[in-house]
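W.,

You were right to be curious about this one. When I first looked at the sequence I had no strong expectations either way, so I just let the prediction run and decided to look at it fresh. Below is the sequence, 344 residues in total, followed by the output.
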Amino acid sequence: MRPTLAWVTAAVPGCGGVFKAAPEDFEVEELPAYGPSGEGEHLLVWVEKRGHTTPEVARALARHCGLEERQVSWAGLKDRQAVTRQYLCLPARGAEEKLPSFTFPGVTLRSWARHRNKLKGGHLHGNRFSLVLRGVQDPGALEASLRLLEVHGLPNYYGAQRFGAAGDNAARGKQLLLAGGRHRDRFERKLWLSAYQSELFNRVASQRVERGLLGRALAGDVLKKHPTGGEFLCEAPEVDQPRMDAFEVAATGPMFGPQMRAPGGEPAALEAAVLAADGVTAQAFEAGGDETRGTRRALRVPLRAVAEAVEGGVRLRFELPAGCYATGVLRELLKGEGSAVPEG
């Protein structure tokens, strides 16, 4: 069982409520890194779906257009039990004239246009969320938690879906790493190793929250710029702290691996202690090869959320950068006093 992660809003009780009583209670709209240019060999297709995963819709499009599944790409995966809108990309030749006749229950092709480059994973700025909490018991607590998150930022934890239905992906990744990193199934290998890196990141982030250091610039921190992603070492915390307060930069945590930029000082000691507590060395990640090269991930992200009363509940609207989880917002509001299972 994974340890409970620390809350930024620990001083506020859970607001209570149930999430995702119906697919319409969870809407996700992709914020693309770019739109179609109007010319080129590829088609960017703006898809609205419900009741299907992104790969399921991609397979249906491929079949209809006479393509191989690998020819259809996307920037990010979207949840099945939700109303979601995103771009899918496919070759224009042979497909463009077939799209008007495409039908698939729960899926609507809103528009399509040509583009010069193929859409690849990660080619998006983020996602816009609209979700409804039903049966909220303490609206005041909900508002208080949202205001704290606006001031302090949202911990950039990986969501539960990262760790598999049984919650054991990280444990499998650790076992695989310590056994030399080899596994017959390439997909499982990547999934498990990434989950273990994510688990360790969450532990570091949680400790920063517990110690009141999530929004503090520490000497030795590797800081990341919003939104460009550029990194630099914090040498003068008194200079960088105002930029932290303005959400211009964020401290980063480890996705351990040999190519990860190493911090110094107190951040380095904290990260080393997390590894030591798990009986793993930084060198162990070399066994993961390309799957565990290592990188840095922002420990927090800015949040500006709007809450409005709707029949039977409260609707929340907010945006998050790519790779961030809507579950992070809900866990801060609910504190476990409700049901929340979105996948962003």
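Here's what jumped out at me. The chain has a mean pLDDT of 93. And, maybe more interesting for your project: DSSP finds seven helices and 16 strands in the chain.

Coffee later to discuss?

I.
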